[in-house]
Amino acid sequence: PLSPQTRAARVRVGKGDKPVTYEQAHPPHYIAHRKGWLSLHTGNLHGEAGAAERAVEDSFLRRFMFGTFPGLLVDEVVLKRRGNLLVVCALLGRALPPSKIYFLVGYAETLLSHFYKCPVRLELQTVPARVVYKYL
Amino acid sequence: QDPTAAHYMFQDDPFLMPRNAANSRLYSLSKESGKNAAKYIIKNFPQYFDKTFADPNVPCLMPETLTPQIEGMSEEALKERIHLRRVKESVDMFDQLVQAGTPVSLETTNSLLDLLSFYGDGESASEKQEEAKEDLEEPGVNASEQKAPKRQFQRGSQSSGPRWRENNHAERIFKIMPERNAHSYCTMIRGMVKHGAASRAYDMYTDLLNERHKADVHTFNALIRAVPYLKERFIERWELAKEFLTHMAQQEVQPNLLTFNALLKTLRRCGGVGRSMCLMVLKEMEALDIEPSLATYDHLLSIFYRGVDLPPSGIISEVLDEVEKRDFTPQDPDDGKDFHISDNLHWCCDLKDIKLAYQLNKTMGKGDNWKFLDVDRLNGYWSKFFSLLCMMEQIEVVLKWYKEMSPSLFYPTPKNILDLLQALDAADQLEVIPSIWEDVKQLGFTRKQELLEEFLSLMSRDQHPDEIQLAFAKCAEDIKAAHEPAGREQLPLEWTGSTLGNVVVLFSRAGRTQDAWTMMEHFQQANRIPTDKVMDEFLSCAKQTNCPDEAIKLVKLAASLGLPSSQRLKSRTEEEFELSEAQK
User: Fold this and answer.
1) Domain span including residue A63
2) Residues in chain A within 8 Å Cβ distance of B48
3) May I ask the CATH architecture of the domain B430-484+493-583?
4) Which residues of B touch A89 (CB under 8 A)?
5) B63/A106 Cβ within 8 A
6) B352 conformational bin, left if phi > 0, alpha if psi -120 to 50, beta if neither
7) PANTHER family, per this entry (chain A) (predicted)?
8) Full-prediction pTM beyond 0.80?
């Protein structure tokens, strides 16, 4: 059982007007029970190297996505690595017209591919508003 | 293949999927421009992108090194600049070397000439962006007054592309070369032909012959391509081309595929002579064992189908059979551009031959053949195919194709929708119209006047069972909304007499009397006259819904508009309705 002083990745209960997504509402002990992983790679398996590099790349990619799609990211970015391919799955809001979103997509894909020397693919899903799981 | 999905370059999301042809072009272009923005960043800040930690190294994802490494004046530096395609710098370097007295070897000079002829004294694309626009000078192909070689860097007129001018850099360098070999002459000729100075190319060729050099295959190809610009009459053109061919045979140069394609291209401009000669050219090609490419077939077809009043020969089916038998890879730069597959489909349409169209479609599906059509042409191709289908095939086949192709492969143009409506009309399946109207709304054609008129006239022509009438009335309501002033700057569409009348009829049949009456009021506003049929329909609707007031209002309207049928309407109203005394 967890100590009541743990504060990691938990949204504290408030007045009931704070909208919270599914991802944010569940504290980390629910990973693999009610949540999935946000970043999937083989670095943490037995006998595999490179976990630290993947972690650094992950943090860079999250900041990059947060900056390139200003105000559009509704939920956390999910990163999937399949062989050499890096699939970045993001959930966007519909604030920009689709032509501008495609411009950002083309830009992000080429820039990241050249930066990490591996093919990068962006898979987006748009959502009219932030998907609220509950209000805390 | 999934019929509801868009092209794979678009994201698979209902907000981000393009709905019509304009949108799909816009999204693909914006994605491309995003890629260009990223490339610009990578080019200008290569220091962040050049760490090679990938194992093995991926050269296509590294930034390109475009700046010349070797500084100073030397022949290696010149060679490097030529290799990097920096025209201005290599010319400057060459001039510096010549002035300093260092001998430049023949090969290097030749490669410099190659570079200059290829770019025709204009810059390569990347350098154009860096230079500011200079004044436009006029191209002087036959300017005899220009004697002094110009040191200034000149640009051709923007409208016709870079042209070859007297005494530009290439010619200057050519003249001051101490020794020239065949290669130099050849490059000069090819450059001149490429940039439009055909007569100078011919003069250069005579110089070449005088010096007893041998020209190579590419030079001859260029000269044959230049023939239409040298002579006017068809016979003379053919004679000149034959002269070049005999020279080729004398100098023992083997013709290749591009030679024959150039010949056919020239024959295109030769009219009647071309038609008789081109089959012989084809036989020569087969004799020499050269496989014809797509451009060959395209030239052939265009020679035969140029005039509209010529009887169509069976050649197109033969050509299609040939094309089917083998896979094509692009060999000629004219291949993709000229084998207008949509044009071929156009000829199929003229011949009204649906089987040929199916055959063409099947050949497209084989192997790499789709690469010959880019995304813009693809839409044109499919839209012509669909028009042909609507004309020739049964309605079930048409609807099946429409459902399969519509959002994924191509976006219907307004003409396609009109054809589809006519086909439905011919097959008497007008109940599909509301679903097509939904598609039209999605495609964004709701403001096209002809389309709206066609829809309304088809819907209001005959009586239909009730549910369909309700659906029709809903469509009519949408169309009416399009005619009203919207909140934005778009001007509302003008009502015409027929559209107004049809809308009234549709509303009346569905029993929506109030809406029908508002439409009738529009008649006066728009200064149009309703037809008798409209009045009758309205009256029967009023009778059904039992509103005698409406009927009286109608009679008053008819009287005020001075219609000849107002008397008849009055009598009919009196018969059919039970009116109180006041109303009479």
Assistant:
1) 37-129
2) 115
3) Alpha Horseshoe (1.25)
4) none
5) no
6) left
7) MITOCHONDRIAL 28S RIBOSOMAL PROTEIN S24 (PTHR21244), SMALL RIBOSOMAL SUBUNIT PROTEIN US3M (PTHR21244:SF1)
8) no
